[in-house]
Amino acid sequence: MASRGIKPAPATSAPLEPGALVSAASVPAQLGPEHVEEPVAYDGILLASFGGPESQDDVIPFLRNVTRGRGIPDERLEEVAVHYRSHGGVSPINEQNRELKRALEEELERRGIDLPVFWGNRNWEPYMNDAVREAGEAGCRTLIAIATSAYSSFSSCRQYREDFADALEDTGLQGVMTIDKVRQFFDHPGFVRPFIDGVRDALLELRAEDPTLDLENEVEVLFTTHSVPTADAVRSGPDDRDYGDDGAYFAQHLAVSSVVVELALAELGAGPESASAPASVNWQLVFQSRSGPPSQPWLEPDINDVIEGLPALGRKAVVVVPVGFVSDHMEVLWDLDNEAKESTAEAGLAFRRTATPGVHRDYVAGLVDLVLERRDGVPATQRPALTSLGPWFDVCRPGCCANARLGFKPAVAGLEP
Q1: Which UniProt keywords apply (predicted)?
Q2: Which terminal residue of the chain, N or C, has fewer Cβ atoms less than 10 Å from its own Cβ?
């Protein structure tokens, strides 16, 4: 029996239509082209996110959902629960998604696009199966999904595709409803623009606060993202493409960070402060929020370890750029605005943390543009991308973002396995 208000059980299968290679796909996507360049008459948008608790009583049940199948006792979960409990047990992510849903609806209405938006989460209410059921009850049969994660990895792409398969099976809509997914948008101008603005403005603020500060030599820009197990990073992206030793996840973040620095400095050089604008700035990609056992390798270096060593390099200020995140959820508020800021104070450095995209006008417009790419079948050559890695695939390739520990599970919007 289909569940309501409960995280759905994992799907046992993702059946294919006769002749199709992609489960639950619209007809133009069923044979798995890298970029779908045929129009699709979508009748709804599925906004997919991680979810978060909204009361103290929700915290441990939420964390049990997050860690399901890993056998982690509640005592261990309480070590993480303190982050949420310090904010009244409420994660900001659900309210941020409500705001994003409203912003998307307003942008769609402004453009005269009649597409309803349904919101579902992986780990807390409203769950993905509830959103899919709501869409089905509204008469929708052809959804285009937007996951609130820009990069390629198991948890930020493939697991959402598994969530869609779980929801379709749970609701009995497998074979009735199709769910395509917009491409990973790490280098889409709408996603990148808020970070360019943030770096440019942070450097201007630091200079205004201390006119003697040497932006080229005394400031470090730290682009930060969620660490993932090295084994997962290596497997991010398709298994027949070489994105370097740490996979597509690392390569995408590095490429975007480079573009942000380049464009922020270019705008400084073209603005009223151009006479004193730096020609370059020190920057690096760092990681945060690792949660695995010490014996398991995760992507490094950790942001706090890096901050600790900056005074020895002559740095006097840090600009932290949460380039891996779309909104100010708990791991931004706790790990950056609390722990990283504290590390910076201990190191005697000035601190600036730039904003995440949130509901930035360009970001919201960019998400709608991504939907229209698929609705209108826009050729790949006409799709905007700020790095040489994009535009990314519409249909995930074979082996994309495998989980080394869990193996492949039924998923949609990608070629098998």
Answers
A1: Cytoplasm, Heme biosynthesis, Iron, Lyase, Metal-binding, Porphyrin biosynthesis
A2: N
